[in-house]
Amino acid sequence: MDMGFYLRDPKLWNYFISLPSPVRAALLQNDVYVSTLGELQTMAEHYRNELNL
Q1: What is the distance in angstroms between the CA of the first residue and the CA of the last residue of the chain?
Q2: pLDDT tens digits for 15-47?
Q3: What pLDDT sits at residue 4?
Q4: Using an 8 Å Cβ cutoff, are 23 and 48 in contact?
Q5: With 80 as the cut, is the pLDDT of residue 51 above it?
Q6: Where are the domains of the chain?
Q7: Which residues of 18-49 are buried (b: 16+ CB within 10 A; e: fewer)?
Q8: What is the DSSP letter of 19?
Q9: Residues 6+ apart with CB under 8 A from 51
Q10: pTM
């Protein structure tokens, strides 16, 4: 998944750009596919915990 995916949905984009850069990088590197803001929030929280952020 690339940043263009998040750009297509303003809610996803606004949340995505608010995340710390290591979390954004992890989401992009691991090709995380989300279809809702809730899914993105869940995955971001997972990476925050994994990265100790």
Answers
A1: 22
A2: 999 999 999 999 999 988 898 999 999 999 999
A3: 87
A4: yes
A5: yes
A6: 3-50
A7: ebeeebbebbeeeebebeeeeebeebbeebee
A8: S
A9: 22, 23, 26
A10: 0.86
